[in-house]
Amino acid sequence: MKYQELWIKENTRVQERYDLATERLAGIAGTETGKVPDPFAGYFVRMAQFAGMIEKLARRQLRDELEGLTLEELQELNQSLYADILPENYGHSYANPDYAAEALGKDFGPLLSAFYAQLRGSIVFAYECRLEDITILFETLIELYNQFEEGVPAKKAVRDVLYWFYSDYTDVTLPYRIREQLDPSLSFARDIIMESDLTDLRYLYRFGEYISHTELQVASFLNGLAEETIERMAATYTEGYRKGFEVMGRDLSRKRTVGIRYELGFERMIRAAIRQFAAMGLEAVVYRAAVWSVTQTPNRKVGYHGTSPNRQYDYDHRYDSAVYMDKAFKERKLAVLRTAYETYKREAARYAGPAVVETFGEEAFRPENKAAACALSRRQEELSLAYTNESVAVTNHYVPGDETSFTIIAFPVPEIGEDFEEIFEETIRINTLDYELYQEIQQNMIELLDQAEYVRVTGRGKNETNLRIALHRLKDITKETNFENCVADVNIPVGEVFTSPKLAGTEGLLHVLTVYLGNIQFQNLRLWFEDGMVSRYSCDNFADPEEGRKLIRQEILKNHDTLPMGEFAIGTNTTAYAMAERFGIGEKLPILIAEKMGPHFAVGDTCYSWSEDSPMYNPDGREMVARENEISALRKEDVSRAYFGCHLDITIPYSELGDIRAVCPDGTELWVIREGRFVAEGTQKLNEAL
């Protein structure tokens, strides 16, 4: 493989260290644990045995020996690498924080469990032939082992080993993460996609990710589609990307690379997309979801990846940064980030932004909160949030938000049920609905909404929503608008109209009976707003209400004490809603589609964060002026107070929606939706699908 050639020099430089580490661990895996007291000897033997599997895997990959394995042999290898964290084995795995705490004690169990989760990253490093990454993990395992050779050490001694491991090697792990998102010469995944026989499903096992029935079924299904269908799927995705630049008035011709993120199994579509992007002058950068703890985002995978072998495992380790996060680490990481971007500033300037393929249809995940799982202290939460805000400013300096764009599209996976193939076909249809028809309907809605001082949204039936959304004052309605007319460009499918509300005067309750946000299904989610800010919140996911509030704070507020309402939108894709109702899959749809199926409200930054000062015009020529709120306006005084680094949409489905009324300054009420049906002039056609 071309990619392997890049690592010959790097691997030669670290070969001696790698050999010494693997030799030492081979001894530990055998009989050299006599000095380590129980119960820790068992942990280190298990870790050393895992390291032995990795050493053998790396050797076979470097020699191209995996190429000759049968599909059955590759499946057996894949299962053996991920077996320890599969749900049926997780109860007795050191990767399970509660088991580790029970077996090793509450002082050491969580720390050693967190390190094991990081050590498991060596699986993909072996596939990518990155011996330096494997070496530093193996050396740290040996250093931890040494701490226990003469008895049980102090907890601080073990924590210090881990702290300095993450801190010292940040200048290895973080720069590589920046590079792999920008540099097309790191072509490991692209080579597999473009050079493999995609009808031979053995190719899936070359990525090093866990491969489940999902990836195999999706790849087989796509292999059965006509080439014309594949090209159409890819064209919707790539053309949406191009239109994003066009709509926002940005110059795509100045860019040279596009970042592709997707879920394994869709390689046939991605291959077509790579070729289509190339025709636009863009070279694809296909990068893996982050593996190192210091570059991961809790409960979010950014990059290509397979199905999770165990979502509870992912959830348990989402805050392993608690092991090392302090002020000194935060400052070091920021310094390394700046240096990394400076190193790759040429690549950063050529980067056009991400093109994302999401999937939907997995069973709802209801997490269990493990007592021994690492958790951020309040001070660590503050430091993590400060890093996020400051790092976004660094990134925006080298990859300006007003010079890039993006696109997102979603498709179902077989777990959605026996109607998978029909739902897939319907999704393709929804993704290619008439752009111009929706643009005209939405323009009619915007003309009504622009007369309003505020909008009133209420629920129906068991939905208790009662919200007042304040709008910006328009100086000249013939030249300005409060709502963007959003069709199928960056967010596929069509359609919605959206605004950034004024915070002052925005208040009330947002309630959704059931909603899937990220990987988690929330039940009876309630958010209360005062002057546009979340004031309190609850859900029924746990018997203990406090556990529910804790979940919301982590997963929706992203550990902030509060967030503003960054967006109010009205989704118009009743065709998507009709599909959801027909197949009974409403709660399984991703935010990308769900947000088009009713009014939605985003907590966090506005849709225009970091590009508020770039003019934006609707197709009718009027400028969209509601690009900021009272929080984002603070960028002019103190940018650290203006952004939160998050934006999460929460949709009220039509079945739970009562009314949407535009209330004019004189008190006149103009109805947009009544009892879940569109009544504004020029929008009634949307009811046909309902």
Explain what you see.
With 690 residues, the protein is an alpha+beta fold. It folds into three domains: 2-158, no CATH class; 180-410, no CATH class; 433-689, no CATH class. It is 42% helix and 16% strand. It is built from 24 helices and 19 strands. An eight-stranded antiparallel sheet has the order 12-11-10-6-5-17-18-19. A five-stranded antiparallel sheet has the order 8-9-13-14-16, with helices on one face. A four-stranded parallel sheet has the order 2-1-3-4, sandwiched between helices. Helix 9 (131-148) packs antiparallel against helix 10 and helix 20 runs antiparallel to helix 23 (574-583). The chain is globular and about 85 Å long. The model has no long low-confidence stretch (mean pLDDT 93).
Key terms for this structure?
690 residues, 3 domains, alpha+beta, five-stranded antiparallel beta sheet, eight-stranded antiparallel beta sheet, globular
Helix tally equals 24
* Ends apart, CA distance between termini: 52 Å
Q: Radius of gyration in whole Å, from Cα?
A: 26 Å
Envelope shape: globular
Proportion of β residues? 15-25%
Structural class: alpha+beta
Supply the number of structural domains.
3
Low-confidence stretches: none
Measured as a percent range, the helix fraction is 40-55%
Average pLDDT: 93
Largest sheet: 8 strands, antiparallel
Q: What's the β-strand tally?
A: 19
What is the strand arrangement across the widest sheet? 12-11-10-6-5-17-18-19
